[in-house]
TrEMBL record:
The protein's role, per its UniProt record: Subunit of clathrin-associated adaptor protein complex 1 that plays a role in protein sorting in the late-Golgi/trans-Golgi network (TGN) and/or endosomes. The AP complexes mediate both the recruitment of clathrin to membranes and the recognition of sorting signals within the cytosolic tails of transmembrane cargo molecules.
Segments forming a coiled coil: none
Protein name (Swiss-Prot/TrEMBL): AP-1 complex subunit gamma
UniProt xrefs under PROSITE patterns: GAE
Gene3D superfamilies (alphabetical): 2.60.40.1230, Leucine-rich Repeat Variant (1.25.10.10)
Subcellular location: Cytoplasm, Perinuclear region; Cytoplasmic vesicle, Clathrin-coated vesicle membrane; Golgi apparatus; Membrane, Coated pit
The organism's taxonomic lineage, starting at the top: Eukaryota, Metazoa, Chordata, Craniata, Vertebrata
Species for this entry: Buteo japonicus
């Protein structure tokens, strides 16, 4: 059989192939020849054939049939055969194949070979692809070589020990004695691999970490080595761009970071050397920047001095001025991690960070945006928002959603005034309205609702913002909602913050009708517009007939949502016109409730018990009209805890007769109420669930009324009714009157009863109690008392009077016996 071609000739031949198919044909032909040679047990050219096979493997062609040939080469006594055999084993074998176990004995023999280069081949192979079984069998030989005086073998043995520890962590203690003298070696290769081994041991075992900190005094040794590196003169063997062995410096800094983390003594011992590295390292070359970056990470991760941390942040600030984009990106990422702990130091580089928003690289731009939002505070919010709004206006579409959300959050947290807050949000909606997230619209509506003094200004600004431009759907939705709520303020021209505009009722309706018919309007936007038109029927006086006509037109819309709204609003005009002003009255102040009121709720055995109530009044103007989730356990004590420990979702009060269960599920005890409260049970129209009929038709008269509360001009009377269908249910109608000279607004009545009772609270007729007893608020309470126990109740009253928020608690224990017996 002729001698096979050499590897160099094969490479030259393959490179002449013009197509992939031609190359594939050459490879297949050569593979066939190699297989024939393997079958004939040709020892002469086995090394050459395996080398060619490895080249084909590197090109991506299958070469698994050469695995056993690699083992034969390893068993050979020739160094050239062993070299190719071990290389083939590292490339073609791994621990998932049982064939690799056949190598164990050969590797053990070679680890004890008289030639250091053969020992080095065995160490490299074991450290590359040794399985846990091989590592257990050969760890002893590796440990012996780690103690040898030959630096060539020690550095390879150290790296092999790293692989052994990763595969079999319990063998870590075997290498502990050998590590004592590793750092005294002058050979940089041994030092480098020793630091890698020590790092692996410290990361994998807290016990080892503590041992090296206390017993081995590892930190002073590392400090000494690092100091020698930065203070030594020029060394041709280790110099890289004027810096002595930067690879070893980086490894030592990483190990110092692990040793100094959460350890005061170790951190103190390395503060000085870190300062020297930070000040003496040359920054003109990338090598120096790599060392400085590792130094910064180490300073930030250990318990370093404040001055050292400022120095580290200043280094990152210099990185931001570097022309290399990778260095700028690294600096921004690192500053983003440290901004929470060293906020003031990072603030000094704010202008440089903001300049990075103009960078052409999208990765740098995103990091700069995230860091800019992290730097916003009450002192710089105006300037930072100006820069971020400019960025929002010019950035790519993929940034707009995140940028808009960040501006919303920052403005909500640090807004210097309500007007600035509203102007900023409106600017965002005008600039990037189509990209804002879904929660932007309700959040802005809530902000506008709570800013009572800004209603006229806001509705005027929004009206002008959408004139002729309906492309920004969230902006149009907010504008429609505000026009519907505060259209009367827009027409009356009551704006004091800027020059009022003259708008007629017909012009306002023209805008809303244009939104309805615009091709750019989404279904949700049209719903906002139609509801706004309906609300204006109670705010405008001259255009009610036009509103009725618009609403009736959309009763046959192909949009099911719009059609349903229009049909329901038509029903409101025709059947329930007497209720329309109450149903469409202005929305009360809304607020994000972050706590459950003035008590501290404590969970005990699945029930809620309150701490002592503080009676100091809440801040003025912060009470929402309905605080269902602000109901507390008003009846302390072990025998009168509420039935349900959680509060239901808050809903604004309305005249729609909604059922408001303030204490949870009324059927919790298994005693159903025979006469359920009226509720909307999917009628043909939404408003068909409303009824002016009495809740209970079978009434037993003769129960005397009582005065439950009479203080500060506010009087609460209770009248009682009993149902014949279920005698356990008592219906209490409260009547609240006001004898003072000013109205009481935002009135909220809440009640709680002992846990043996169950309670339902219906919505009140209004939230304003007129002055001089000229009117009353009525509200219905239903109490289920299956055990016929004496009725007791604690009530909580919240309202605004004479510009201040009022809150009071009272107990009612004088219920007439007829109401509960």
């Amino acid at each position: 059989m002729p001698a096979p071609i050499r590897l160099r000739e094969l490479i030259r031949t393959i490179r002449t192939a013009r197509t992939q198919a031609e190359e594939r044909e050459m490879i297949q032909k050569e593979c066939a020849a190699i297989r024939s040679s393997f079958r004939e047990e040709d020892n002469t050219y086995r090394c050459r054939n395996v080398a060619k096979l490895l080249y084909m493997h590197m090109l991506g062609y299958p070469a698994h049939f050469g695995q056993l040939e690699c083992l034969k080469l390893i068993a050979s006594q020739k160094f050239t055969d062993k070299r190719i055999g071990y290389l083939g084993a590292m490339l073609l074998l791994d621990e998932r194949q049982d064939v690799h176990l056949l190598m164990t004995n050969c590797i053990k023999n070679d680890l004890n070979h008289s030639t250091q280069y053969v020992q080095g081949l065995a160490l490299c192979t074991l450290g590359c692809m040794g399985s846990s079984e091989m590592c257990r069998d050969l760890a002893g030989e590796v440990e012996k070589l780690l103690k040898t005086s030959n630096s060539y073998l020690r550095k390879k043995a150290a790296l092999c020990a790293v692989h052994v520890i990763r595969k079999v962590p319990e063998l870590m203690e075997m290498f502990l004695p050998a590590t004592k003298n590793l750092l005294n070696e002058k050979n940089h290769g041994v030092l480098h691999t020793s630091v890698v081994l020590l790092t692996e041991m410290c990361e994998r075992s807290p016990d080892m970490l503590a041992h090296f900190r206390k017993n081995e005094k590892l930190v002073p040794q590392l400090v000494r080595i690092l100091k020698n590196l930065i203070m030594s003169g020029y060394s041709p063997e280790h110099d890289v761009s004027g810096i002595s062995d930067p690879f070893l410096q980086v490894r030592i800094l990483r190990l110092l970071r692990i040793l100094g983390r959460n350890d005061d003594d170790s951190s103190e011992a390395m503060n000085d050397i870190l300062a020297q590295v930070a000040t003496n390292t040359e920054t003109s070359k990338n090598v120096g920047n790599a060392i400085l970056y590792e130094t910064v990470l180490t300073i930030m991760d250990i318990k370093s001095e404040s001055g050292l941390r400022v120095l580290a942040i200043n280094i990152l600030g210099r990185f931001l001025l570097n022309n290399d984009k990778n260095i700028r990106y690294v600096a921004l990422t690192s500053l983003l991690k440290t901004v929470q702990t060293d906020h003031n130091a990072v603030q000094r580089h704010r202008s440089t960070i903001v300049d990075c928003l103009k960078d052409l690289d999208v990765s740098i731009k995103r990091r700069a945006m995230e860091l800019s939002f992290a730097l916003v505070n009450g002192n710089n919010v105006r300037g930072m928002m100006k820069e971020l709004l400019y960025f929002l206006d010019s950035c790519e579409p993929e940034f707009k959603a995140d940028c808009a959300s960040g501006i919303f959050l920052a403005a909500e947290k640090y807004a210097p005034s309500k007007r600035w807050h509203i102007d900023t949000i409106m600017r965002v909606l005008t600039t990037a309205g189509s990209y804002v997230r879904d929660d932007a619209v309700p959040n802005l509506i809530q902000l506008i609702t709570n800013s009572v003094e800004m209603h006229a200004y806001t509705v005027q600004r929004l009206y002008k913002a959408i004139l002729g431009d309906y492309s920004q759907q969230p902006l149009v939705q907010v504008a429609s909602w505000c026009i519907g709520e505060y259209g009367d303020l827009l027409v009356s021209g009551q704006c004091e913050e800027e020059e009022p505009i003259q708008v007629t009722e017909d012009e306002v309706l023209d805008i809303l009708e244009s939104v309805l018919i615009s091709n750019m309007s989404a279904s949700v936007t049209r719903g906002y517009a139609l509801t706004a038109i309906m609300k204006l029927s109670t705010r405008f006086t001259c255009t009610v007939n036009r509103i009725k006509k618009v609403v009736s037109i959309y009763g046959s819309s192909i949009d099911v949502e719009l059609q349903q709204r229009a049909v329901e609003y038509n029903a409101l005009f025709k059947k329930y016109d007497h209720m329309r002003p109450a149903l469409l009255e202005r929305m009360p102040v809304m607020e994000k409730v972050t706590t459950n009121g003035p008590t501290d709720i404590v969970q005990t055995n699945g029930e809620t018990e309150p701490a002592v109530l503080e009676t100091k009044p809440p801040p003025s103007g912060l009470q929402p009209a309905s605080q269902a989730n602000d109901l507390l356990d008003l009846l302390g004590g072990s025998d009168i805890t509420p039935v349900i420990p959680t509060a239901p979702t808050s809903k604004p009060a309305s005249a729609g007769g909604e059922l408001l269960d303030l204490l949870g599920d009324l059927n919790l005890t298994g005693s159903p109420i025979s006469a359920p409260a009226p509720q909307i049970a999917q009628p043909p129209f939404l408003l068909d669930g409303l009824s002016s009929q009495p809740l209970f038709n079978d009434i037993a008269a003769g129960i005397p009324s009582i005065t439950a509360y009479n203080k500060n001009g506010l009087k609460i009377d209770f009248t009682f009714e009993r149902s014949n269908t279920n005698p356990s249910v008592t219906v209490i109608t409260i009547q609240a009157s006001n004898s003072t000279e000013l109205d009481m607004t935002d009135f909220v009545f809440q009640a709680a009863v002992p846990k043996t009772f169950q309670l339902q609270l219906l919505s009140p007729s209004s939230s304003v109690i007129p002055a001089f007893n000229s009117g009353t608020i009525t509200q219905v309470i239903k109490v289920l008392n299956p055990q016929k126990q004496q009725l007791r109740m604690r009530i909580k009253l919240t309202y605004n009077h004479k510009g201040s928020a009022m809150q009071d608690l009272a107990e009612v224990n004088n219920f007439p016996p007829q109401s509960w017996q």
